[in-house]
Amino acid sequence: MHALHGYLLLDKPAGRTSAQVVRAISRMTYDARCGHLGTLDPMATGLLVACLGDALKLVPFLQKGLKRYIAEVRFGLATDTCDMDGQIVGKAEVPAALQDRITRVLKRFVGTIQQVPPVFSAIKVKGRRLYKAARKGEEVEAPVREITIQDITVVSRREDSVVLDVRCSAGTYIRALARDLGDAVNCPAVLASLRRIESAPFHLDKAVPFELLESGREKVQDHIAPLTAYLPNLPHLELSSRQAKLARTGRPLAELEGIPQGTTLLLDGAGRLIAIGEGEGEPRVMRIRRVFTGPQSEE
Fold first, then answer.
1. Residue 219: how many CB atoms within 10 A of its CB?
2. Same domain, yes or no, for 48 and 139?
């Protein structure tokens, strides 16, 4: 039974951690090497990209893509986790002019801004996950991060809540956005629901239900996209058969024409991904950083 290499796009249900989903995939695929591209909190639903086999080698080049979420923010309540799963730490009356206030302040959050992540987060400070310290009741301070929110659109409104369509950079905490929006309108707020629609270049419309994992390996592997279906936005070079053989052994290539500076995808004549190289020096040499050895016959 051959190993599986590629991407499985899942529609994650609420109530499961991203790690639980990955373990379920690994069991179903007979312990295939598996990881995920971007964590979703247990309460969140939507796109979770599982990377199998050689796809794991591409994670560093794909994880910084644009994210898109549909988020419901509820006002009048504050929790220690900034979502509905946390302990209530504050309440307030929702002002009658809430929606007018929201409209006035939303533009403050568009662009490159500073954000303080929730203390209940997986960010490491001095080698320790923040949420572990927070769970023990220790005082922790999350480091300020620079994020970019490209756009926020109001989808719908209620007296005490608003549903937002958010397009943002990797590393953005929507829970923190909900908290900060509450501060901006002078009424505490939490994230009531979250659904990830996009993690570029991946989109929810290509995802399959989590229940598919109960169908067995044969049915699941029909939905695994090959490596070349979602290549990083990097320069690429086509290798001759001799050059491809050298690249597969990890040996540097010095006879290529037009070697670009920096990270480059190396493909064979059939368009299959052979390796990731790094163009260095003068005269330019292509040094091999990652080699892809898995079967790519479906590509």
1. 13
2. no
User: 0.85 cut: is pTM over it?
Assistant: yes
Contact criterion met (CB below 8 Å) for 112 and 147: yes
Domain assignment present for residue 1? The answer is no
Tell me the pLDDT tens digit for each residue of 30-72. 667 899 988 899 999 999 999 999 999 999 999 888 999 999 9
Query: Which residues are within 8 A (CB) of 81 and not within 5 positions of it... i.e. 6 or more apart?
Result: 87, 118, 120, 175
Concatenate the DSSP letters of all residues of 112-161 into one string. Answer: EEEE---SSS--EETTEEHHHHHHTT----PPPEEEEEEEEEEEEEETTE
Same domain for 221 and 238?
Answer: no
Mean pLDDT, the chain, rounded, equals 89
Q: How far is 130 from 60, CA to CA, in rounded Å?
A: 23
Which residue, among 165, 154, 44, has the nearest Cα to 98 in the 3D structure?
154
CATH number at residue 72: 3.30.2350.10
Check the CA dihedral 40-124-278-295 and report its sign: negative
- Tell me, yes or no, whether 79 and 183 share the same domain: yes
Catalytic, 183? Answer: no
pLDDT at residue 298 in the model: 43
pLDDT in tens, 210-264: 998 887 777 888 899 999 999 998 999 999 999 999 999 999 998 777 788 899 9
Which domain, by its residues, includes 240? Answer: 234-291
- Does a structural domain hold residue 74? yes
Quick one: 37 and 103 in the same domain? no
Which listed residue (41, 54, 83, 180) is catalytic?
Answer: 41
- The Cα 132–Cα 251 span in angstroms is 43
